[in-house]
Amino acid sequence: MFVRHSLKFLLVVIASLTFSPTVSATSVPSNEMLHVMFLELKGKLITVAKENEALRTEVGNLRKEVGSLRTKSTAPVALQMASLSDKPMGGSLAEAETPASEPSPVTIFAIKPQKREMTPYDLDLTKGWWREGNYVAIGGGLVEVEDADLTFLDVPGIFGELRSKRGFLANGALGHRFENGIRSELEFAYRRTFLDRITAYRSGALSTSNRNGTLMDYAIMANGYYDIKTQSKITPYLGVGIGVSRTYVYFDDDDNTDKTDFNFAYQLAAGLTYPLFPKVTIGGGYKFYATKKPTYDDEVEAEYQSHNAELRLLYGF
User: Fold this and answer.
1) 138 shares its domain with 8
2) pLDDT, tens digit, for every residue of 118-165?
3) 144 or 68, which is more confident?
4) Is residue 88 part of a domain?
5) Shared-domain flag, residues 134 and 67
6) Distance from C-alpha of 121 to C-alpha of 233, rounded to nearest angstrom
7) Taking all residues of the chain, what is their mean pLDDT, rounded to a whole number?
8) Residue 58 placed within a domain
9) Could you tell me if 266 and 277 are in contact, meaning their C-beta atoms sit under 8 angstroms apart?
10) 269 and 182 co-located in one domain
11) Is 6 within 8 Å of 44 (Cβ atoms)?
12) How far apart are CA 132 and CA 54, in angstroms?
């Protein structure tokens, strides 16, 4: 609009100079005035051009913003239809013909659950052995019994030592595992070692007897374990157990078998487990097993402490 009026003004000035012979020389604008007017007109034209360019830039930014809003819009069509259905029907014709104002943009916040990377422990926890439930276990291994101090109750003042060779163990258990990693089980265990020699001494006198025989121990234990969660399939565990046991000594050259009464027994355990299949797990570890000093036929009192290395197979159901 401003450009149009400026051009008209310029044409009027030129026409007055050309077609008005009565105009005096003093009323005719000089060259300096025309130059000043031209510069003013040029400055206004530059200002208008800059404003026009700013408007174009703003329009472009608005178009980009509208395009991004359309792309990021997550409002379902059902939500829009529900908003239309909430409007009351009827009304005057003027109200019906009145165009609705453009709704303001609404930002919809979608809460996305945090996806945590699954670890092998989590994968095993959802199925199979690591799921809460019952299990059975069988195992076996090696046993080494510590040298046992002997006290002969029927002969005061005589002491001795019982030494046995390395032997073996076998056990079976029925247990239950909780999702927090705690396991409880009832175990039956059998340990068997072979006698090496018996040493007896009294008041400086020493007597050694090499006798072949067998040292056997039967135990029923109530155990508790705790499986430590890790970021791998290898799971360490710690355990403790208490129960009752009965120990037997059998000499090859004697038909009699010396046995003890039922005695208090305890054990400490530590080891590792690894799932082979969804419900089958293999485990290996160490156990320290000991009993209260057993008394054989009320005649000889002896210690029983052993170190056990075992391998177990567990099946969950």
Assistant:
1) no
2) 444 444 444 444 568 899 999 999 999 998 777 776 677 677 778 888
3) 144
4) no
5) no
6) 6
7) 75
8) yes
9) no
10) yes
11) yes
12) 69
CA 308 vs CA 48, 169, 269, 302: distances in Å: 97, 8, 9, 19
Task: Kindly report which listed range (67-76, 102-111, 237-246, 260-269) carries the lowest average pLDDT score.
Answer: 102-111
CA–CA dist 216, 258 (Å, integer): 10
Measured CA to CA, the distance from residue 74 to residue 262 in angstroms comes to 75
**Residue 86: inside a domain, yes or no?**
no
Q: Are 213 and 247 in contact (CB under 8 A)?
A: no
What is residue 172's predicted lDDT score, i.e. its pLDDT? 97
For residue 244, the surrounding DSSP H or E stretch is strand 235-251
Is residue 150 located within the same domain as residue 57?
A: no
Give yes or no: residues 299 and 213 share one domain: yes
Q: Is 185 within 8 Å of 173 (Cβ atoms)?
A: yes
**Which of 23-37, 96-110, 184-198: highest mean pLDDT?**
184-198
**Could you give the number of structural domains in the chain?**
2
15 is in which domain, residue-wise? 2-77
Nearest Cα to 223, choosing from 257, 196, 183, 250? 183
Mean pLDDT for 95-114 is 52
Query: How long a stretch of residues is the chain?
Result: 317
Q: In this structure, are 310 and 169 located in the same domain?
A: yes
Q: Write the CATH number for 211.
A: 2.40.160.20
Instruction: List the one residue out of 286, 275, 282, 169 whose CA is nearest residue 217.
Output: 169
Domain presence at residue 91: no
pTM of the entire structure? 0.56
pLDDT the model gives residue 301 = 79
Q: Which tokens sit at 56?
A: 């174009």
Per residue in 244-264, is it b (16+ CB within 10 Å) or e — as a string? Answer: bbbbbbbeeeeeeebebebbe
Contact at 8 Å (CB) between 171 and 190?
yes
